[in-house]
């Protein structure tokens, strides 16, 4: 039986993610143990809070290097702050290096005249195909809560954006690495469909070659 590991580094919305996976019938567990996580067939990197604090905790636990090695052969999806951690660096509070799994940087939301943080439901505009968006269509709404956004270096890695004063990165993908700026576990039917597609991806042996 395939399993999804939810990475616990003290800054994630773990129970909501676990509950959503339980709801769609995905076998999952929460752990901060590298050996246990290494045995998982796919990983979720959640995240709520500040980028530098998150990277510090991942580094202290040795999870940063573990994640970089893991995604060479198996899929991982980052959620909210977890997606931002996939990038090269962030400018939240201070410049801080990220996991460098997707090229680009994280900057303050450019939303002239709009409130920051960006909080609430917004429509997705699909740009590039990805396995995790196979069930989505333009205009589907998902739930965002964030003050910083990712700027992607390679347009090919940008799967979807949302309009919040400017195009805000919503979904990214590169190789075995996926990310959602919004919270799929809080995005009702659309969010659950993304988690289902990730679960399907985890169960597809070809995704782990």
Low-pLDDT stretches: none
Q: How much is the radius of gyration in Å?
A: 15 Å
Largest sheet: 8 strands, mixed
The structure class reads alpha/beta
* Number of E-type strands: 14
Order of helices and strands: EHEHEHHEHEEEEEEEEEEH
Strand order of the largest sheet: 2-1-3-4-14-13-12-9
What distance lies between the first and last C-alpha atoms, to the nearest angstrom?
A: 18 Å
Average pLDDT, all residues: 95
Kindly estimate the percentage of residues that lie in beta strands according to DSSP.
25-35%
Could you say which overall geometry the principal axes of the C-alpha atoms support?
Answer: globular
Amount of helix: 25-40%
Number of helices: 6
Describe the overall structure.
The strands form 3 sheets. Strands 2-1-3-4-14-13-12-9 form an 8-stranded mixed β-sheet. A 4-stranded mixed β-sheet has the order 6-5-7-11, covered by helices on one side. It has a two-stranded antiparallel ribbon with strand order 8-10. The chain has helices spanning 14-23, 34-38, 51-60, 63-70, 81-84, 188-203, and strands spanning 4-7, 28-31, 42-45, 76-79, 87-90, 96-97, 102-108, 118-123, 125-126, 141-146, 148-152, 158-163, 167-174, 177-180. Strand 12 (158-163) and strand 13 form a beta hairpin. It is an alpha/beta fold and 209 residues long. The two termini are 18 Å apart. The radius of gyration is 15 Å and the shape is globular. The protein contains 6 helices and 14 strands.
């Amino acid at each position: 039986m395939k399993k999804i590991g939810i990475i616990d580094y003290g800054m994630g919305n773990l129970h909501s993610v676990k509950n959503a996976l339980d709801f769609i019938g995905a076998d999952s567990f929460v752990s901060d143990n590298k050996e246990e996580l290494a045995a998982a067939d796919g990983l979720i990197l959640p995240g709520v809070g500040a980028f530098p604090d998150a990277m510090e905790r991942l580094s202290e636990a040795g999870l940063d290097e573990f994640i970089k090695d893991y995604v060479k052969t198996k899929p991982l999806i980052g959620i909210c702050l977890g997606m931002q951690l996939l990038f090269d660096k962030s400018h939240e509070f201070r410049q801080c290096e990220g996991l460098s799994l997707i090229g680009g940087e994280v900057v303050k939301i450019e939303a002239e005249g709009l409130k920051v943080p960006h909080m609430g439901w917004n429509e997705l505009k699909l740009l590039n195909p990805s396995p995790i968006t196979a069930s989505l269509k333009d205009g589907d709404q998902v739930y965002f809560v964030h003050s910083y956004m990712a700027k992607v270096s390679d347009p090919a890695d940008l799967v979807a954006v949302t309009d919040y004063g400017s195009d805000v990165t919503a979904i990214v993908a590169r190789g075995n690495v996926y990310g959602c700026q919004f919270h799929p576990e809080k995005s009702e039917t659309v969010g659950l469909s993304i988690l289902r597609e990730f679960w399907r991806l985890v169960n597809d042996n070809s995704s782990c070659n």
